[in-house]
Amino acid sequence: MKALREAFGDELLELAKEYPELYVIDADIGKSCKTTEFQARFCKQHVNVGIAEQNAAGVAAGLATLGKIPIVSTYAIFGSLRMCEQIRQEICYPNLNVKVMCSHGGLTPANDGASHQAIEDMGVMRTLPNMTVIAPADYYSARNLVRKAVEMYGPVYMRFTRDAFPFIYDENIQLEIGKANLLKEGNDIAVIASGEIMSVAINACEALEKEGINARLLDMHTIKPLDERAVVEAIEECGALITVEDHNIINGLGSAVAEVMAECGKGRLKRIGVRDKFGESGPYEELLASNGITVEEIVKSAKELLK
Predict the structure, then answer these.
(1) Contacts of 76 (CB under 8 A, 6+ apart)
(2) 86-92-98-104 Cα dihedral, nearest 10 degrees
(3) Rounded Cα gap, residues 264 and 245, in angstroms
(4) Which of 40, 130, 248, 252 has the fewest Cβ atoms within 10 Å of its own Cβ atom?
C-alpha cells in the first residue's frame, strides 16, 4: 500500500531530470503534497507563493506563456474551488499548458472534516472547456498518468489521495489519457470506477463472481475526456452499469456516464458515491460507509439491477 501523493512526488523527481522547463508552484504545503524533495534538488524550478492559491494559478499561467511546464500543487479543495476563476480565465480560456495536481481529494482528509474534503472538484473541473480531468487508481497508475499529463499539451487537473491504498498495477503499467483500462472481463454487469476507490470495486467484483455474477470492471481514470466508446460497449454488451467514485454523485463520473447513456437511450445505471452531502470528521472507512461506498452496496446494487 502506498499513497497516491507519494507517486506524484516520486515521479516529479524523474521528470525534472528530463524536463528542465518543468516548474512546481507550491502553496506552502509542500510537505503534505510531497514536493519538498523536488524543492531541495531543483530549487531553481520551484516557486512557493505561500497560502495564496489564486496567485499560484496566475504564476503558472505566466510561466506557461514563456514555454515552461508549470505544475500547481496544493490540496484538491483549494486547487479546484479557490482557484476556479483563475483556472477558467487565465489557464483554460487561453488553453495554456498548466497542470493542477492536487492531493487530499475526496473524503480522504477524513478527520480534517468537510472544509478539506474535496467532493466537488472533478465535477467543477470537467465543466471547463480545454480541461482534462484525471483520477489515478493507485501508486503506479498515478506515476504513469503524471508523466503522461506532462507529456501532453494543455490544462490538466489531477487528484491524489492522502492515505495509502493497495497496489493494483505494477511499474510496467502504461495507461492512455482518455481511454479506460479493462481490469476484468464480464458481460452480466459493468462496474466503472475511478480513483483510489478502485480497490473497493475490485473486491466487489470478486464477491459478485462468487455469487455467479460475471462483472466487467473498467478503470475510468480519465473523467474528461470520457472514454465514451467503452461506456457504449458496456451498455450494449452488459445493459446494466454501476459507477463508483469518491466524489459527489452529481457531476462526477456517474453523471458523465449517465450523459452517454441518455444519448444512447438505453441501459440501467446505479451511481455510487458521495450522496450530495458534505463530509464530516471521522475515519475514512466510516465516511465511505455512510455514503454507501462499500463492497456490500455495490453487490446489492448489482443484484437489484439484474432483477
Answers:
(1) 102, 103, 104, 105, 106, 118, 121, 159, 160
(2) 60
(3) 22
(4) 40
Q: Which parts of the chain have pLDDT scores under 50?
A: none
CA 216, CA 188: separation in Å to the nearest integer? 8
pLDDT at 229: 97
Output phi, psi for 191, to 5 deg: -110, 120
> How do residues 110-168 score in pLDDT, each as one tens digit?
888 888 999 999 999 999 999 999 999 999 999 999 999 999 999 999 999 888 889 99
For position 307, what pLDDT does the model report?
Answer: 86
Domains, in order of start, for the chain: 2-165 (3.40.50.970), 181-306 (3.40.50.920)
